Amino acid sequence: MDKYWILSANDSVASRVVGTGKVAIDLIEMRCQEGKWYIKTKKNLTPGDLVCFYAVRKGVVAEAKVDSELFKNSNSGHPWGFAISGCKKLHIPIKLGKDTRPLVSLDMYKDNPSNWQVNLHNSPTEISKHDFDLLTGKAL
Description:
The protein is an alpha+beta fold.
């Protein structure tokens, strides 16, 4: 059975230099062309899973399909990677605001609504199909 994930589209070092939103969009475009994404913490992502990418101050800005098992990456900052395909940028990023807040069931969001995205910088977080559809605009 496929799983659904949300993860950060931000590179924290580059974001401080250039600005969060632009870096996230540029990073997604670069990784989609390359067909790979890199993460800090090993998770059970498997081929066929769907991921959505969250950009700080922007919202969920894109989605893609996982195309491989995790592989080791030589970059010590992001030691794990996986292949992606079918990247779709959302024309209007989906923000977790007053309209979507009551609809989403993300535990990390409900536990800490003002700073929930901090967890995403460390690793992908599994979410429900309902939340994935909401955050990628399919359920709005």
